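#dry-run=false #mode=assembly
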Amino acid sequence: MTANDEELGDFEKRARALLEESVLRIDGRIRSRLNQARHAAAAELERSARRPIWRSFALAPAAGVVAAVLLAVVLWAPRPGQMLPVGEPGSSAVEDLDLVADSDTFDLIEQEDGGFYEWAVAQADAGQAATS
Amino acid sequence: MSAFATLASGYNTPVAVHGDVDFTHSKLNAQSRALNQFLAGVELKAFKIAQSALRHEHDALDAVQDAMLQLARAYANRPAEEWRPLFYRILENRIRDMQRRRTVRARIMAWLPAHRDDEDEQGIDPIAQAPSDAVTPARRLELDESMQALEAALHELPNRQRQAFLLRNLEGMDVAEVATAMGCSEGSVKTHHFRALKALRARLGEFSI
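#status=ok
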């Protein structure tokens, strides 16, 4: 260890005190939400214990995934006479496509983003209709 | 005698099965209580860690709730002493997923024709930039300022450094537990933690509370 250990230790102590104070200040509304989440987790434990194994492989909702694939095709397929937009530094269309097509992203889409992608497809279609 | 034996065994079997069922229920109840106790002990700090990474109260709550559910669903049968690093590993994955989802959304919004024209007007997400704490009393101004400065500095850290710092300094986990939670070696944890400390000190100096 270094000669600065004690100094670093003081800094860490102050930081910890501040962080703990900020935890104490978490308001009742959030505490209540966390409490509900905890009870939901306990209920999930009981459901999981009683659920037959084959139910674990139930099909996930697919509409969001289909919408995401459609969106990827609509957005990244070049239109006649269209210049590809310049992305932010360090990014590219291929990178964007990777991000949307990534299997983890599909999990996210299934879980909560299905509506967003369906909306985005509609927006992209509307944009295409307006330019053609 | 043999008839008695047959009869006895006939009565014994259902009693044994009934006993198994009771045991399963009581085991489940004990597990549920233990999980509840564990989650009650980590939920506030977990929320703070998620909020520090996501800078969004609702997302932070969602991340913690998802981590709780995932722990209950998939890892409740693991020994209780493994729960803490597992829980924080799940939470960190969930935080990363949310950050990726934001990136995907931001890029898609940038590509959409209807939103290209007004993207300059959108600027920084006001929700993400909103201060996370409620209004504070004037007498605690100095503490509040230090707290806000620390939270802002934490947000500026790379994810891994922030994670190492908060798990060590807020959750109080030892290096081995943090290594399990972060899915890396203990040496990496020490490096991330040291760099986090260095960056925070450079940013904050000797802040007071």
